[in-house]
Amino acid sequence: MNQLQQRLTEQGDFLHLSRTQPELLDTPIDLTLANGTGVRVTAPGIIQFSAAKHQGKDIVLSCGVHGNETAPIEICDDLVRALLTGELETCQRVLVLFGNLPAMDIGERFVEENMNRLFSGAHSDTPGLVNDERRRAKQLEQSIADFYAQGNEQGQNYRCHYDLHTAIRASKNEKFAVYPYRHGKPWKTEQLQFLLACGVNTILLSNGPTTTFSYYSSNEFDADAFTVELGKVRPFGQNDMTRFEKARQTLTALVSQAELSFPAYNPDDFHIYEVNQVINRTKEDFRLNFADDTPNFTDYPKGTVLAEEPGATYVAEQDGEAIVFPNAKVALGQRALLTVVPTTI
Ligand SMILES: O=C(O)CCC(=O)N[C@@H](CCC(=O)O)C(=O)O
Ligand SMILES: [Zn+2]
User: Fold this and answer.
1) Tens digit of pLDDT for each residue in 63-89?
2) All residues with CB under 5 Å from ion ligand 2
3) What is the ipTM of this complex?
4) Domain co-membership, 63 together with 99
5) What are the residues whose beta carbons fall under 8 Å from the beta carbon of 75, sequence distance 6 or more?
6) Cα–Cα distance, 21 to 10 (Å, whole number)
7) Does the annotation flag 69 for ligand binding?
8) CATH code at 187?
């Protein structure tokens, strides 16, 4: 083992190294831990673990696709440290992705462009690979494609991808997940049970394809994939990590146990919503018609004006239609607001 490999396995500070000395990780690293786990670093922020005795799951965990969403970054950092130092042993193949390292350094959602609108090839749409976020989105896509392809060589493995985020604003339902559009395939209740074990009891069913990271893995690799929102954006070190203990424990169990078992699905345990409207900002002068501190999942009576821009007024189409992810400052053409309505599956 060289000095760098020794440092990684003794201190486990992969994220710190990725952020402070990324050049050290530009050359791929392959090593085997004392417990037999294979470790492969292919780039800063991209690390893979392969159990000596693999139990058939190819698991992708991503965080920091938005640089200021720190709680999931801290969870993944701790998980990677535990795996590298041998404190925790995986029995699966696990790929951990720390998405936007430069945005973490400036404590912002992104540097030039929202990376979570750049997947499924959108990174290369006009004007092409012109900034770091576009190039990184392409690299992250490729790392998942390679990871799943390598898994395939060892037999058809089960695939999942949990892309961990936090929401910009407070939420009536603190933890929730976006279930990417499945093109008519059934929503999986056993996946909802996994999310419930993570402390996530609110699910948004998407109504169409998107350029998000979770949709990419779901659509291209048939992975069980979700965008998981674990609370609210806060600076590093300012998260109350006790609020994420269930997520931490369940993700740890996912990588370290051959099988997880959960109680049977009970609809009463969940708030399930389907997307009713995707409202894009098309004009500079786009305005939300509610206060900046209105929490996600606040609902309105039919006819309430939710947002306006020259030439368009967006209203609640149904009683009880609720707002999610409102953001009047998104780039033109991007989603400024989702509206959702309760549903069942
Ligand atoms: O709170 C917000 O406004 C944004 C939080 C966030 O980053 N959410 C994801 C959701 C992705 C999805 O719809 O699957 C995003 O906006 O990228
Ligand atoms: Zn996010």
Assistant:
1) 999 999 999 999 999 999 999 999 999
2) 66, 69, 165
3) 0.98
4) yes
5) 63, 164, 230, 241, 244, 247, 248, 251
6) 17
7) yes
8) 3.40.630.10
